[in-house]
Every structure is written in structure tokens, then in C-alpha cells.
Amino acid sequence: MNDSLMLVTALTPYIGYDPAASIAKYAHKHSQTLREAVAALGPDKAGLTVAQFDEWVQPAHMLGPDE
Amino acid sequence: MADTTTRTETDSMGGIQVPVGAYWGAQTQRSLRYFDIGTDTMPPAIIRALGILKRAAAETNRELGKFVTVSERLRLTDEQVGTLIAAAQEVIDLRLNTHFPLHIWQTGSGTQTNMNANEVIANRAIEMAGGTLGSKQPFHPNDHVNMSQSSNDTFPTAMHIAAAEEIVHRLLPAVRELRDKLDARANEPGFGDLIKSGRTHLMDATPITLGQEFSGYVAQLDQDLTRIAGTLPHIYELAIGGTAVGTGLNAPREFAPRVAAHIAQITGLPFVTAPNKFAALASHDPLVMASGALKTLAASLMKIANDIRWLASGPRAGLGELSLPENEPGSSIMPGKVNPTQSEAMTMVCVQVIGNDMAISFAGTQGNFELNVFKPVIIHNLLLSVRLLADTCHSFTA
């Protein structure tokens, strides 16, 4: 599940569609997970920290609307 | 040297040249390049429906505070949201139709047409605010116009809005008009009370009045009106709020019911949120059912139009029981010939509608897991059937 690049959808409300797409493309190109891509890009280029990634991207929290 | 006929638009794939006069952006331009297939483009009813949806979504996101709670970079003021809504209103009013150039034969989810709407509304709003087209500042097609939405819930929603508006405002009145005209003739002294030979197996049978024969046509159309109206309740159920796969990810919990209420308010039709969004994305059973009702109307009209042209056959060597209006010359070689052309147009429409129903039925079987990706072909054929049936009923009545 954590290999899915489409988990990146959870980031769009926080960082916007275009930066989120850049992370997904980077991860795909470098055969990385999204988390690895965020770590490799660093907070300035990725638009978020790994800690924020861990907080915002959780499959179990992606099963319904925002509360 | 700078090209003055195009400007650069960008998306996640990079930059692409777009004609300067166009409000659309990079994704629409890519679709034009890669999907130059056929001559059928998205019908105005779908473009209007997307405008209605985008306005309703902006109003709902504003109510729920979404434009304020997003990251600071993406924040919009109430006044800016008002500009977004004004741009969507221009789409609703069909003033931006030339900016929707995409073909039916594109992605099966309709994503490119949803993005076409997002791009046009964003750029028109940017222009209203005095900004630069293509800058995505302050209005972004995905982050703002598409906020709390996915193509996977917006396009099926637009399909239902377009189908309902066209059925309610165009088709049902036209069928009623024809039904009432046939009913008036059935009860007309000197017409309805004419006694003639009934026919079964094409052969002489016991007597019948012309009024009795016509009352059968009226009853068929009454049933058709009931059948078609009976498909509307499920068409009034909207997918919006399901987002990408039906779970509602990235939309507030209150978004789905509220946006449906806004759409109901804008259209004056009783739209509600679909009780199950997974079915609303992955199947199009309500539209398959509606097409079935349209096909049944086609079956009725085929019988009626055929009877009428046979009864009017002649004038010297046919049944000659009816005389039809002589509207136009019927032959380029045979002087004075007049033909039952309204019946011919109507029966051809019926053949097309039955063919459309086959395409819609097959497309409706083709959902995979969380999405049916035969959406444009379904709505293209459904709206074509509605339009042709309405127009032929009106033309036959006139």
C-alpha cells in the first residue's frame, strides 16, 4: 500500500496540486516511495518535511471525507 | 522572437503553446493534440452543467471555509471567490462555449473536459481580476476551481445535470405537445368519429373509428411520458462528493449534500446527493435505464409514424385514408409528388435512438472496480437521443 504513488493525493490540500505532482513524478522516476522522495528532495523543494508527510499521508485516514 | 499568436500554458507535464484568444490551458491543448478524433464535441448541455457544478462547488467550499483553511499560499478571499463564481456563471450562460473545443472521443472519465472547465474558469477569473492568463495566480484550475472534487465525481454529476435538464425542459414538453395534438385530432368532430375498417395482419378486420385508432397512439405516449419521468429520481442523485474513488477523500463531510442543494437551487430541479458514491462513479445504471425509456418512446413513435404514412399512402393507388400537409415538393423527377417526409424523419430518428441505446447499454456494462470509463460516449448518445426525439416530436406536431 505504501508503494502507491497516488497516496500523494492526500497532500494536495496542504501543498497544492502542482508541488504534489512533482513529488509523485520524482518518486516514480527514481523508483522511490513518496516518503523517500520527500526525504531526497528536502523540505524546500518538496514543500513539506518528512514528519509532515508521516502526519498527512496515512492510508487509514484516506478512506472518507475530511472531518 | 516572441510568438504573438500563442502564449505558454503549463501543467505537471511542462509547457505548451495555446492560442492567445483561448481561455483554455495546457491540459485542454494536449487533449486537442492527442485526441483529434471525429467531429463530435462536448454538447452545450454538458458545458452548462459543468458551469453549474463549478459555481455550486465554489459556493459550498466558501460556506465550509475551505478557501480559508487551505495553506496560506492557496488562500482566497470572499471577493476572489465571488470572481470565480462570476466566471462559472459565464459558462452556465453559454457565453464561453467556443472555449470548450474538446471531442467526445477522449479519456473515458471525461477528465480532459473537467480540466477544460477548470482551466477556462480559472483563466477567465484571472482576467476579471486583472491578472495574467496562464499564471494560475490567484486562481488555480486544480487547487481552486476543482477544490473538493475529482473528475471522477464531477463528470458523472455533469452527466446527470445535463440529462435531467434536457429531459425535463426539452423532451417531455415536446412529447406532451405531440400527445395533445393527437388527442385533439382523436376527439375532433368529422375526424375522430370517422368509421373505417380496422386492420390486423395488414388485412381487413372489424370496424373502428379514426378516433379510437388515434387514442391508442395517445395512450402509448402517455405511458412513455410516465416511463421517462420515472427514470428521473435516480438521475437526480449526484456523484459529487465521492471524489476519486467514491470515499470522498479531500472533500469536507458536508460538501456532498450541500453542493447538491446548491445545484438544486441553481437549476430548480430536485437534485440530491447519491446515497452511495461508489455506484455513482463505477456504474451508469440510471442513464442506461433512461436510455431504455427513450428507446421505448422510439418504439412507440415508429409505430405511430408508420401507421400515419401508410394511412396517407396514395393519393390514387394507396390506402388514402389520411391526407398529410403538403409542405414541400417530394421528387426531383416526378412533378407534383408529395411524400410523408415528417414520418420519414421521425422513423429515422427512432432507428438512431435504438442504435444509441445499444451503445449506451454496452458502455454501461463496462465499469471496472471503482470507475466506469465510458462516460463521454454514454452522455453523447443519451443527449443525442433526447435532442433528436424532442425535435422530431416538435417537427411532427408543427
Topology of this protein?
The complex is a heterodimer of chains A (67) and B (398).
Chain A: H1 12-15, H2 17-29, H3 34-46, H4 50-56
Chain B: E1 6-11, E2 14-19, H1 26-34, H2 44-63, H3 66-69, H4 78-92, H5 111-128, H6 141-145, H7 151-186, E3 195-200, E4 203-209, H8 210-230, H9 232-235, E5 237-238, H10 255-267, E6 272-273, H11 277-282, H12 285-311, H13 341-364, E7 367-368, E8 371-372, H14 375-397
Parallel strand pairs in B: 5-6
Antiparallel strand pairs in B: 1-2, 3-4, 7-8
Helix pairs in contact in B: 1-5, 2-4, 2-5, 2-7, 2-10, 4-5, 5-7, 7-8, 7-14, 8-12, 12-13, 12-14, 13-14
How can the largest sheet of chain A be summarized?
Answer: none
- Binned, the helix content of chain A reads 55-70%
- Strand percentage of chain B: 5-15%
| Adjacency order of strands in the biggest sheet of chain B | 1-2
How are helices and strands ordered from N to C of chain A? HHHH
Mean pLDDT of chain B: 97
Shape of chain A: globular
Structural class by secondary-structure content of chain A = mainly alpha
Largest sheet of chain B: 2 strands, antiparallel
